[in-house]
Amino acid sequence: MTAGSHVRHVVIYIPDYRIGGAERAAVNLTQALPAADLRVTLMVNRRIGPLVDAVPPDIRQVSLEASRTLAALPRLVCFLRRERPDVVIASLSFNNLIAIWANRLARHPARIVASVHNTLAMDSARDSVKHRLVPILYAITLPWADRVIAVSQGIADEIAPFLPHGPPTSVIHNPIVSSGMIEQSRAPLDHPWFADRGVPLILGVGRLVAEKNFALLIDAFAHLQRLRPARLAILGDGPLRPNLAARIAALGLDGQATLLPSDPNPWRYMARASVVAMSSDHEGFGNVLVEAMALGVPVVSTDCPHGPAEILGNGRWGILVPSATPESLAQAIMQTMDYPIAGNVLHARAMCFSAAVIAEEYRTVIRRLCCGTIRSGSGR
């Protein structure tokens, strides 16, 4: 493809509009990416989930109406043959695989960018056979992409052995901070804990799944509670809700700790928290840390692979807990409450991950791909 002045068509491809870090990042990128020479289509397998309302009405949306990602394959092939977009940016493991396969079946009408958000350990640790197959499928399929984007340096290092002969890999962090996020953080919140500034409030945010390890956060809070008054709220949904609720009850924390349902606007909770704590065993990036920092709220995180150390500058902008025990995490939370980093300092760091900044990095990759200055892994 030669350079030209016409408008390039970019498709951003995600599974659906359920609340998740990759899905939020894609919606943010969809809003920030369009330019005089770039138009954007947001494509999903199914048009379901609360984030559908976050997409501006002027953004074109396409649903493949597929109940499963694999079922989207023939419809994506037809879309690529019919519309011949210049670039497709896929996100998450199975969308990456399907986009690459569809493009080969359609005889390469588009440049394919595979955006890798999860560590291979996260996929391998899941119960389903299909997730445990991801490392094998990546080894076979990722070399056919035109470009691979890792959302953290740790993920880039992890997938490097799968790409000994290309395609090129870039580290582009998630586009997190948007003006809409800041505005929504000021929305009213009808919960007494978030209005009571007299008792410190620790907040955890994320899916209630094993890799987020909210059990560690609950245990740390139990330790902290023995030393000083505080409250804990965990915002999210997932299969481990009954287990976590039982843990709260068993530790005698009812009335001091609570599980709140997921909310399309988690930022109004973050903005009113004393500390946002991440207790994960694995992270692809760690969007929650950036979101809290953008609102001037101090953060604490386990030093898990791969994103938190990159976001926090190895501890410069928030305490990293290298040995994730309840006692060490509780100590880090208390230290952060006693000696918080200034909100303006945290906000300035978070703006390194703004949608506007990250979108420009994507534009550079897209324009170079369209001008043929990046070697293709698909053999063109």
Topology (SSEs and partners):
Blueprint: E1 8-14, H1 21-32, E2 38-44, E3 60-63, H2 73-83, E4 87-91, H3 93-105, E5 111-116, H4 120-124, H5 129-132, H6 134-141, E6 147-150, H7 153-159, E7 169-171, H8 179-184, H9 192-195, E8 201-205, H10 214-225, E9 231-235, H11 241-250, E10 257-260, H12 267-270, E11 275-278, H13 287-294, E12 299-302, H14 308-311, E13 319-321, H15 326-338, H16 343-350, H17 355-370
Parallel strand pairs: 1-2, 1-4, 2-3, 4-5, 5-6, 6-7, 8-9, 8-11, 9-10, 11-12, 12-13
Essential attributes:
single chain, 380 residues, alpha/beta, Rossmann fold, 2 domains, seven-stranded parallel β-sheet, six-stranded parallel β-sheet, 17 helices, 13 strands, 38% helix, disordered C terminus
Description:
The protein contains 17 helices and 13 strands. The protein is an alpha/beta fold. It has two domains: 8-174 and 354-370, Rossmann fold (3-Layer(aba) Sandwich), CATH 3.40.50.2000; 179-353, Glycogen Phosphorylase B (Rossmann fold), CATH 3.40.50.2000. The strands form two sheets. Strands 3-2-1-4-5-6-7 form a seven-stranded parallel sheet, with helices on both faces. Strands 10-9-8-11-12-13 form a six-stranded parallel sheet, sandwiched between helices. α7 links the parallel β6 and β7 (169-171).
